[in-house]
From TrEMBL:
Alphabetical list of PANTHER family matching this protein: INTEGRAL MEMBRANE PROTEIN-RELATED, PILUS ASSEMBLE PROTEIN
Originating organism: Kribbella solani
Pfam families: T2SSF (PF00482)
Bilayer-spanning residue ranges: 6-27, 109-129, 135-156, 281-301
GO cellular component: plasma membrane
Residues covered by the Type II secretion system protein GspF domain: 175-298
Key words of the record: Cell membrane, Membrane, Transmembrane, Transmembrane helix
Protein name: Tight adherence protein C
Membrane topology value: Multi-pass membrane protein
Localization per Swiss-Prot or TrEMBL: Cell membrane
Amino acid sequence: MNPMLLGSFLGALLGAGALLVVLRLPFLRKPTVDERVSPYLRDLGAPDVFVDVVDSRSPFYAILRLFGPSLRSAARRLERILGGAGTIRRRMQRAGLERTVEEFRIEQLLWGTLAFAAGLVISIVAFASGRGNPVGMLAFCAIAGILGVLARDTYLTAQVRRRERRLLAELPTVADLLALSVAAGEGPAAALDRVSRSCQGELADELKRVLAETRAGETLVRALDALADRTGLPALSRFADGLAVALERGTPLADVLRAQAGDIREAGRRELIESGARREVAMMVPVIFLILPVTIAFAFYPGAVGFRMIAG
């Protein structure tokens, strides 16, 4: 390990830290309009999720209060760089997350910071053992931070897919229960209320939201259309559209619900068959590239050894 390289690396870290401290001094930092006005509008602002969930006696509360403005400012810069606020908002709705785009960007920053810190620790350990160079290590830390930011976006996609699978799994049962309630003589709103109270899960929560919108003055048809737009699932969109059309035109609702449940189950069977076919093809990869070469090696190796002994 070269002492000169180690000293230059540690000196660069110390200089970067001192520069950040100096730049954040109050007399060198010009406050923005939001920072000057926010103390007088504090009661009107939205609650800070990352502060309100922490007990005020916890040491993390002071840390979040201290770095909260910096995180929000960095989140706005990240939003200007990445863009796509409408797409993020749409995906969070489909994942069932009641958060703003700014809070999601703050989560991305935290994931990127943790990944950068992990890369920095690995780089310091590697540098202390005499391997690597400072430039490559800094590039590795930067790449780790970027991958951390992108990992949060990938995890949001995984959250959307998990929730969509749960909604599709619950939809046939909910449709059958609604058909039974309507066939027993209950109205559409009463049937939705009974099913939402009897069931548990993502779809039951969505039905409760539909009922809350109707109690707030929205028509049931528009609330169902909002449910279809919010989830983005074709099967659930057809279900909501079928309910809306039946309510508008006076079609027997029980028959419509039974047909919807049957169509959803048939679509689930087709998806299961297609998934099995894809997995069957994927199972051939380890067979061809792992098991078959080993089998060929075991079959031909004794013969090759025998030919070598005969030739020798």
